Amino acid sequence: MSQAQVDVSEVHWLMDMFQTVDVGLVVLNCDYRIQVWNGFMENHSGLTPRQVRDRYLFDLFSEIDEDWLRRKCDPVILLKNRAFTIWEQRPYIFKFRNYRPITSTAEYMYQNSTIFPLSDTRGKVTHLCFIIYDVTDVAVSRIELESMNGRLSQLTKIDFLTQLYNRGYWEESLIQEFNRLQRYKHRSTLLMCDIDHFKRVNDTYGHAAGDVVIQAIADAVRKTLRSTDIAGRYGGEEYAILLVDTTLEQAAVLAERLRLLVESLPINYQEHKINVSLSIGLAEYTPDMTEHRQWIEASDKALYQSKAGGRNQVTNYR
Description:
By secondary structure, this protein is of the alpha+beta class. It folds into 2 domains: 3-147, 2-Layer Sandwich (Beta-Lactamase), CATH 3.30.450.20; 156-316, Alpha-Beta Plaits (2-Layer Sandwich). It is built from 11 helices and 12 strands. It has helices spanning 3-20, 39-45, 49-52, 57-60, 66-79, 136-155, 167-183, 198-205, 207-224, 248-263, 292-308, and strands at 24-29, 34-37, 83-85, 111-119, 125-134, 189-195, 230-233, 238-243, 267-269, 272-274, 278-284, 314-316. Strands 2-1-5-4-3 form a 5-stranded antiparallel β-sheet. A 5-stranded mixed β-sheet has the order 7-8-6-11-12, sandwiched between helices. Strand 4 (111-119) and strand 5 form a beta hairpin. The chain is elongated, with a radius of gyration of 33 Å.
């Protein structure tokens, strides 16, 4: 075989590899006009090399942020350094649909890319080469894992029945607020409330009805809350609300609103209409409290006074 035949053979398999390799290869001149477009890019874009040849990249692919890509490429041309893009920062350069069945949940192809300079014989950068990697599998797996971790993290904070914070997470929030109040001269109030005669509901209608009542009261609590308030299920039928930056007098207004809302609340269970009420205790933080449990005990005492005084009322601890 002659040297010419060997050279032709090498060029042939190089071109074959260039067309069939499972990454995108794109070459642009410094005016961002497409010079090279391999089989991967053709398959995913539906555009042949002939159709894209000498076309302005940003005319063909309007989804590409031109300012962003130019900022990426300028150092490549000027400093002859490589540049990289990763899907976590920007999901893709070319918005290709995702056709891979194993990652069918993704609407488009997630991409990493490498951009490097191509120089002429005098060392001047004349072209930019883009290598486009399909990382959809990795991206989808990471996103699903983070989503699952986020849901698990949320589950550890939320009470299943009421969808309010559970006691453990709510008390952690109370401790943080208690520590803040010890450092700064702010005023916050703790509200504890309990469903009156709840045992009677369970005994009369059953525990399933009791669950419906607990959920209905939790909904009423949510309707009454402000964005800064932190509510949790403290016990079986007991709720706790941390009213941040709220005086005792201001908290009493909110507590009375909650009491009236629950008093007028129609709770339906099967063919029964169940009416319930709340007893509420309020305690404002005071500087003589040395630990958060004293704050809880103070509001609990006020709650007990509401119970002892006939229920369905608000009592302030002083």
